[in-house]
Design brief:
The chain is mainly α. The protein has one domain (about 15-65). The protein contains 2 helices and no strands. The longest helix has 25 residues, at about 20-40.
């Protein structure tokens, strides 16, 4: 019986799978990209700068997690 549980990790006990987390991260990046396009169209340069910073952080965090 003990051998059955020897290789379990915290990830095995609920929570989101890696696939679900990646899908959520991908969706967040797509939303940020859409917001950047809208801000560019509206000429809101401050918002573009802010959103590009958020996008950089989101993609950097994704790169570290992979």
């Amino acid at each position: 019986m003990r051998a059955m549980f020897a290789n379990l990790t915290r990830a095995d006990f609920g929570g989101r799978s890696k696939r679900q987390r990646r899908a959520i991260d991908r969706e967040r990046v797509h939303v940020l990209f859409d917001e950047i396009q809208i801000a560019i169209y509206n000429g809101d340069h401050e918002r573009v700068d802010f959103l590009i910073g958020k996008l950089a952080l989101a993609t950097a965090a994704h790169g570290r997690a992979s």
